[in-house]
Amino acid sequence: MKKIEIKISGKPITARAGETIVQALWSAEMAESVQTGCAGGVCGACTVTVRYADGKPGGTELACMKPVEEGMEVFPCPVESDKAVEPVANADALTLQSVFPTVNRCTKCGSCTTACPMSIPVMDSVMRMQQGNFNEVAEDFTTCIHCGLCRFVCEDKVKPHNMGLWIRRSLGKNQDELKITIEDSNQVEKEWQYLLIDEKQERFQRAKKFRESGSL
Ligand code: SF4
Ligand code: SF4
Ligand code: FES
Q1: Between 200-213 and 185-195, two packed helices, what is the crossing angle to 10 degrees?
Q2: Ligand 1: residues whose CB is within 6 Å?
Q3: Atom of ligand 3 nearest to the CA of 43
Q4: Which domains are assigned to the chain?
């Protein structure tokens, strides 16, 4: 398979044409230079920004989905985790403002919309949040993978996706029929314990085996 060179935070590595950035990192034994969760474009853990050698416009990408390209430069986006905020039943625009005062800081720069790898109209949705149009906001954020990039790029620290998630959960609190019961919570806990073992090599092996078989 054709070999190409890419750079991760300035460090050159050799990758195989056709593989994703995450696969290239795994092969180069640099798996931990980009966070990885689902490895399937769902969880948003692996967000990176990308620059191309041929001058075409770069931008934000999911490293587990983005195929490598000759001369590509990759920069991890370390989005810090943020404390979850409890949802509130029957919330309105005033409730949102009291829980997230950041909602009024938006300067309509549009950076969040540009950064979103899921093409969510984030800035427009922040406007809808300010107006209390929560059903529309919930629709906007249906495909949000909570990669946090909209928060990462926001100079005004508005936290759009945290608010989007809070609104969806608050709407859910109004509807008892939407409550989900996990049938076997012991099994979920068992899987986490199995996958989060401290020893690094063993952790990689278990994650690989779990991805392939879907079971412990
Ligand atoms: S990046 Fe922040 S300030 Fe800019 S439009 Fe989005 S939420 Fe508003
Ligand atoms: S809305 Fe924000 S957190 Fe959600 S996918 Fe887009 S950039 Fe990521
Ligand atoms: S690892 Fe989950 S989206 Fe890439």
Answers
A1: 130
A2: 106-112, 122-123, 126, 153-154, 156, 158, 160
A3: 2
A4: 3-76 (3.10.20.30), 93-178 (no CATH)
92 to each of 32, 80, 146, 198, how far by Cα in Å? 41, 28, 22, 43
CA of 158 to the centre of ligand 1 (A): 6
Q: How far is the CA of 177 from the centre of ligand 1 (A)?
A: 34
DSSP states along 149-202:
HHHHH-TT---HHHHHHHHHHHHHHT-GGG----TTHHHHHHHHHHHT-SSHHH
How far apart are the CA of 2 and the centre of ligand 1, in A? 41
Ligand 3 pocket residue status of 64, Cβ below 6 Å: yes
Ligand nearest to the CA of 39: 3
| pLDDT by 10-residue block (mean), the chain, 216 residues | 92 95 93 86 84 87 92 86 87 96 94 90 97 95 88 91 95 70 74 84 82 78
Q: Which pLDDT value is given to residue 177?
A: 52
